Amino acid sequence: MRLDAARARAYRRGMSDPRLYVDAPLSEGARIPLDRDQAHYLVTVMRRGSGGGVRLFNGRDGEWRAVVAAADRKGAALTVGERLREQAAVPDLHLLFAPVKRARTDFIAEKATELGAAAIRPVITRRSIAERVRTDRLQAIAREAAEQTERLCLPQVCEAEPLDRVLDGWDPARRLIFCDEAGDAPPLLEILSGAASGPWAILIGPEGGFDPAERARLRAEAFTVPASLGPRILRADTAAAAALALWQAALGDWRGGG
Question: Are residues 45 and 147 located together in one domain of the fold?
């Protein structure tokens, strides 16, 4: 996947060097070969030739400046310069969601990355309308979103699992907010006000909502917190973005303005 044309044009006007995620150690003087897709993006789309600037991150070593050392139709290689930013962690927040139609599932993965989720976990519920989830596609979407948004790491993208299996293996130290459309749960912001930081997760149900048995189990677990997202019924992708934004504002890295 590649940046949209408008963002590519903005980069080419000199607003910023493009960013690339690479799965390789980064240090001054290191030479980084690019795969075919990355080379095409950098050389053909972004028109970076020999000596052109690019920023690199790998989720471990921070962000580094690099320059194109070699570029042709067969590929490209970069030489790493100085470090621009030290590595910084994202808050320990997981997003669990029931897969919906492909475009909306893609949206959820993109916005979860932009909003700082540490992990993206599709879960299959009894009313899920999509049971097959292409993890590789969601990983590509997350990588592109991280490159665009100055994030220094990629979220973990997990394989889809049935909800019951997820709950059976749950670590009770991680609080699980499940956004319950039944209307009798307290508002999410009220729950988060004064809550402690630490490992949290948010669960968004399918478009048809949780079925009664699922809701009963979720409410019975000691580690779960039912929450309302307001008086209107939100689409699953809207609910995911809203819940992540509220959590980040109350307990996450939005509090510091970063």
Answer: no
What tens-digit pLDDT sequence spans the chain (258 residues)?
444 454 444 444 444 789 999 999 999 999 999 988 888 888 888 888 788 899 999 999 999 999 999 887 678 899 999 999 999 988 999 999 999 999 999 999 999 999 999 999 999 999 888 768 999 999 999 999 999 999 999 999 999 999 999 999 999 999 999 998 876 899 999 999 989 989 999 999 998 889 999 999 999 999 999 999 999 989 999 999 999 999 999 999 988 654
Report the alpha-carbon distance of residue 154 to residue 73 in Å, rounded.
Answer: 28
For the CA atoms of 80, 15, 242, 107, the dihedral, rounded to the nearest 10 degrees, stands at: -70
Shared domain check, 195 and 100: yes
CB contact at 8 A, 97 and 237 = no
In a domain, 116, yes or no: yes
Q: Are 57 and 49 in contact (CB under 8 A)?
A: no
Label residue 54 exposed, middle or buried (CB < 10 Å: 0-12, 13-18, 19+). buried
- The identity of residue 125, as a single letter, is T
- The Cα–Cα gap between 79 and 70 comes to 9
Residue pair 99/112 in contact (Cβ under 8 Å)? The answer is no
**Same domain for 64 and 98?**
no
Instruction: Report in angstroms the alpha-carbon separations of 82 from 15, 47, 62, 68.
Output: 20, 22, 11, 14
- Cα-trace Rg, the chain: 20
What is the distance, to the nearest Å, from the Cα of residue 175 to the centroid of all Cα atoms in its chain?
19
Domain hosting 189: range is: 93-251
Phi-psi region of 230 (alpha: psi -120 to 50; beta: other; left: phi over 0): left
pTM of the entire predicted model: 0.89
